[in-house]
Amino acid sequence: MKNSLIIILSACFVILAVAPGHETTMDHGYAKCSTHFTGVCPPGTTQREEHDMHHCENDNCNVQECCGARCSQIDNITCRADQIKRGEHDWHMVYGDISKAQEECCMDTHGTCNAWNGVCPAGTQRRHSMDLHQCDDGNCNENECCGQTCSQFDNITCRADQMKRGEHDGHMFYGGQQRAQEECCMDTHGTCMSWDGSCPAGSVRRHPNDMHHCEHGNCNENECCGRQCNAVQVPFACPEGTTRRGEHDGHQFYGNAVVTDECCIKSSLICKSWTGTCPAGTEKRSDDDMHHCSNGVCNEDECCGRSCRSFTGTCDEATEERRRDDDGHMFYANSYTNPHTECCVKTCGKNFKGTCPAGFMQRHADDFHDCSRHTQGEPCGVSECCAQTCQTQYFDKGGSCPEGKMPRSPHDFHQPSSGKFNADECCNEPSRCEASQLRSDAPVDTLFHVCNRSPESCQDLLSSFICGNGCYSQCWQWGKPEWGTDALAQFGCPANITVENACNGFPPSSAPGPSPSPGTCKQGECCGQGTEYKNGHCVPSYGAMEGACKEGNTKGLEWFCNPINDIKCDK
């Protein structure tokens, strides 16, 4: 019996023993796209991620099994009246036959707030259409469907070991005000909020809303003080095959992490390493773009972006604004392929019909914030289109900027994460002139501008921006002629105003001042030398130019002043 058992076991081992490199029957049914698919996904589809554990049918990993599209990329889907199509930012993927798209991309709304026809009371926001919360017993009402954010409540007092959620914490809660206390107070025990130490120079403390839990509840510098790669003082070189994170990469690391591990990225993972050529009408990501290619494979879809300059569609005039050709917005096939959604923006100026609460400011009509995307509340509602800003909370209350700094634009919707509006948050350093606009001999590192808005007309461009002590005057003085000509044309200056004579009559200045808001210069207060105020405009006149000559302000007026100053009357 013993010998028979040995013979049986030996036979089993013989059956299982296979030559190296050959699959066994144990491998069948376990083929994955990340290891067994060798094809190329068609345009508009994306290969399954490496961590996707999908097993290919019959071990045949092909396009049908491995290449999918998001519902937002499939346009010809019509859902039933009691359904809703998955949203633009729903990452659900459809694989296989496209006929599956209807059942995959349409979701039932029965028993959700989408099916509720009530109206949320003032101060609350309806659940987003993509929020498919199932109402209790299918009974949808205000408590189920109308939410509030914690920033709406000033009268919440949290325990000593708790903190109130921050102003920009978008957490929504439902069920009425009676739940505000439990929803809006978070325990700080074991987080850096409970640590009373100070971070050393060159490091930054974790944000108050960062609820990182310290190891064993022991918070210290290593846990709470982080560094950014662009602030590392000790010189370091990235190993071969890696690239240093860009200047504006906000990656922060903590503890005793090795700098090169945190600040150097594998070059093969970013488009800088891709040697392909982008098709006509597209532009390759810049070398500073640290976008990580999916599955580490960089290709056209990952690296070649389009701007809205190439968009030939039509935006809805009633609700949408078309992006400007030069606004820098780029979109890529790997993330989204619907040019209309990328280039036609639903703005607050066209869609917000309400009234902002007292002390809040509405987004400017020219603010291109898309109020229908990334919203926590009602699309294009108060939460998207109204906010307390530096203008309402600092400058309107008498705040000012220290010398050498410039105020944020009145239309700047910056909202400090700390909730404190002060000079540190509301005043900026002067900005460098755009290098691409400057002549080759320009001292690029010494040229700045202090503009905080865009010109609204040719006269505004001349008097407030490029001439005299205008906010963009330094950049103009060193600008390329062709750029200057384009700027004059862009703001509707007449043909007789050229780069050479645009600033005639304006005194030179090496210290540009912030651009005044249109309407603040009354009756010619902002008119330059050699011009006078007529019919709402600053226009050149003989008397004004003569006065400029007598006062010695002759720059740009030499052709006029010299003959006058040289005249000698015969006695």
In this structure, how is the largest beta sheet organized?
3 strands, antiparallel
- The poorly predicted ranges are 1-27, 515-524, 563-571
Q: What is the residue-averaged pLDDT? A: 78
Number of strands: 28
| Beta strand % | 5-15%
Supply Rg: 32 Å
- Assembly type: single chain
Q: Classify the secondary structure makeup into a structural class.
A: alpha+beta
Q: What count of domains describes the coordinates? A: 4
Sheet with the most strands: spatial strand order? 1-2-4
Share of helical residues: 10-25%
| Structure annotation, total helices | 19
> N-to-C terminal Cα separation, in Å?
146 Å
Judging from the principal axes of the Cα atoms, what is the shape?
A: globular
